[in-house]
Amino acid sequence: MLDYMIYILAFAVGSILGLVYSYKQHGEPFVAVTEFNVPFAIISIIGWVLGFCSGNIILSAIGFLLAGFVMGERPGYGRKETALGLIIAIIVYLVLKCSV
Asked: What is the pLDDT of residue 93?
């Protein structure tokens, strides 16, 4: 039970950090970013894979922190990167579970 609380807290802290970072990057009120951000995609992939597949409390918490950072950005940012990270993490999870 404590594991899940750690994961939720790590995700919430990551979301807050992502929101603060996003507002520091872009001060304008409404911006629709259409380009794909490769560094955030890498952070999202690492975060979701660690969160789902690590099997370690600390690594999973770090993964959820990273995933929350990308997912918690301002509306319109990080949605493509989060989707890619989730898809790759699900594929890795299925490959690991089916091979065992």
From this structure: 93
